[in-house]
Amino acid sequence: MNSSSSRHGVYGTPPLALATVPADARIFGPFLPGSEDLAELQDGALSTLVVLAPAGVLERRYALAQALRVLEPGGQLTVMALKDKGGSRLRKELEAFGCVVIETSKAHHRICGVTRPAQVEGVSAAIAAGDPRRSETLNLYTQPGIFSWDRPDPGSALLMEHLPALSGRGADLGAGLGVLALAVLASPKVTSLTLIDLDYRAVRAAQRNVADGRAEILWADVRTTELTNLDFVVMNPPFHDGGAEDRSLGQTFIRKAAEALRKGGTCWLVANRHLPYEAVMAPLFAKVTLQAETKAFKVYEARK
Ligand SMILES: C[S@@+](CC[C@H](N)C(=O)[O-])C[C@H]1O[C@@H](n2cnc3c(N)ncnc32)[C@H](O)[C@@H]1O
C-alpha cells in the first residue's frame, strides 16, 4: 500500500457532496487498489478523517475504532453511511466509544461529526473483533467483511463438487479467501493460476491461504484487468456492489472471462439461480452446459 505524510485522510468513497475532503488526503479502504490500510498507521497519525462506514457491524465498528485510534486528540472525524446500511446505528456506536456526536441527515445518509476525545473506550476490543484471524471452521485465514468470511459458501461448495481436474493456465475472478483456488490447485496439471480480488482483506488472506508457487494473487478490479489466452477460468461472481444488488457486475465478470479464454477454453461458474446470466453467456461462448442445479444455485460450464 502507498503512504504519504499528509495528516488528512478519507476512508472509502463518501459522496463528495456530503463532506469536504482535502486535496492531499491519504486514501484508505479495502476496495480501492493502491490505497493505504488504516491498521498500518501509528496512533494519532491524522488530524482529520472522512469515513464512509461499511454496512457490516463488525467491520464498521472495526473501521470506526481504527479511525479513532489514528486520529490525534482534538482531531476531526466525519463518518457517514446510508441510513439503512448502518447509518442509523452510527451515533450510538460512536457514543459507545466515548465520543460526543453531532448528527445530521442528508441524501438518505446519517452524517456524524466528532472531535476525537483525549480518552476513548472499547477501541482495542472493537479492533480485536474485526482483525484478521485464522478460522477453525474454515481452516483458513480470514477477516470480518470478506465474502463468506466465517462459514463455507454453499454456492462455492456446489461448484467445487462439480469441478473437474483442470489443466494449464487459469484465473479465479473474485477469488475471495482462495477457496476455489485451493480446489483448482489440487490438480497437478494446473501450471498457473491468477487470483484477482478487489477486497484487500481477501487478497491478504488469500496470500496466506494459497501458498503455492503456481498462484499469483492480484489486488485489482476484474472489470479493468486484461488477461488473455487462458485455458480456464473459475468464479463465483459477485452480484453486489456497495451493498446493493448489481447484476451488471456479474455480467461484466462473464464478459471478462470470455475475453480471457483461448478458443476451446472453459469457464466454470456458479451463480444464484435467479440471476439472468444465460443470456449473457450465450453469445460469448460456443457451448454453455448447465452442470448442476439446486434450489438456490446453478453451476455452468461455458466453452469458448
Ligand atoms: C461471491 S464472492 C466469491 C469469493 C470466492 N471465489 C469464493 O468462492 O469463496 C465474489 C468476490 O468478488 C470480489 N469482487 C467484487 N467486485 C470485484 C471486482 N470488481 N473485481 C474483483 N473482485 C471483485 C469480492 O470481494 C468477493 O471476494
Number of domains: 2
Helix content: 25-40%
* Poorly predicted ranges: none
The ligands found in this model are: S-adenosylmethionine
Structural class, from secondary structure content? Answer: alpha/beta
**CATH domain class of the largest domain:** Alpha Beta
Widest sheet: strand order? 11-10-9-12-15-17-16
CATH topology of the largest domain: Rossmann fold
Strand content: 25-35%
Q: Mind telling me the CATH superfamily name of the largest domain?
A: Vaccinia Virus protein VP39
What's the β-strand tally? 17
Taking all residues together, what is the mean pLDDT?
95
Order of helices and strands: EEEHEHEEHEEHEHEHEEEEHEHEE
The oligomerization state is: single chain
Return Rg in Å: 21 Å
| Main sheet attributes: strand count, strand direction, barrel closure | 7 strands, mixed
Distance linking N and C termini: 36 Å
